[in-house]
Specification:
about 150 residues, alpha+beta, Beta-Lactamase, seven-stranded antiparallel beta sheet, 3 helices, about 40% helix
């Protein structure tokens, strides 16, 4: 499945009649892997600040989370895994995976919990897939070593 399909089919899906306003999957280095058509252009320093907050939780709280020039007040999340932000009746959820961050932006009538569920479930799925790939690679290596003559 392409990264764009993850955005189109999973992040921008309908949940109880609502959709995210915008979504993206962005590499830890700031490279946009895929995004919805209306995702705001992000600045490299905005992605760097988000990654820094994952590495040192709490660094965004004093200044806010900036994304596409919009400032979100940082609210509760999961240190090192999820950052959530609020602005008026909308907000943002950012989930960290092994190589990327998944971003969902929402406005009313979508509820914050709906956005959290969409973004975090995809992130958890991708984390599980990465772990499965890693475990499969280790298994193959171990099997190869067992077969090799000493």
């Amino acid at each position: 499945m392409s990264w764009q399909a993850y955005v189109d089919d999973h992040l921008m899906c309908e949940i109880e009649g609502n959709h995210l306003t915008a979504a993206a999957i962005i590499g830890h280095d700031g490279t946009v892997w895929a995004q919805s058509a209306n995702f705001p252009p992000v600045k490299p320093e905005e992605i760097t600040a988000i990654i820094n907050d994952f590495n040192e939780p709490g660094t965004l709280a004093p200044t806010g989370l900036h994304l596409g020039g919009t400032k979100y007040m940082v609210i509760q999340g999961e240190a090192g895994a999820v950052i959530r932000g609020k602005k008026g009746a909308g907000g943002v959820t950012v989930k960290k995976t092994g190589m990327a961050i998944i971003i969902g932006i929402y406005d009313e009538p979508m509820a914050p919990g709906q956005c959290n569920m969409i973004v975090e479930r995809l992130g958890d799925y991708l984390l599980d897939q990465g772990n499965l790939i890693w475990c499969d690679s280790i298994s193959r290596l171990v099997n190869l070593l067992v077969v090799l003559p000493s």
